[in-house]
Amino acid sequence: MSGETTIRHEEGKWHFDGVLRVRGDRPALQHNRYEIIPLLEGARSTHWSSSNPVLGTLSGRFVLCGDAILSFYANPTGRFRGYECLQQRDERRYSVRGAVMEEDKVISTWALELTAP
Description:
Layout: E1 2-10, E2 13-22, E3 28-36, E4 45-52, E5 56-65, E6 68-74, E7 80-90, E8 93-102, E9 105-115
Antiparallel strand pairs: 1-2, 2-3, 3-4, 4-5, 5-6, 6-7, 7-8, 8-9
């Protein structure tokens, strides 16, 4: 797996754009684009929204929890929802664990190690 991310800070919102390339038996290309409400001074959480080509519009929340960022999200009907944890290992590495569900059925899980160049 390989990918890139770009984060732009504007007044009133942050933009996160990412590309993820999955190699192997089932190669895939995934684009993620988030709009994030900037964290307020002293806040431990904020809201975000995203458009996913498979799941549609998603709304979520980032929660700061020690050395981790927790993310919870759902589409407007609640049919699709997911969870992700990004835990910082050091200044260049994060461990990521997540799952997405359709109603009560798990449709995807992932475990990744992210390393900055």
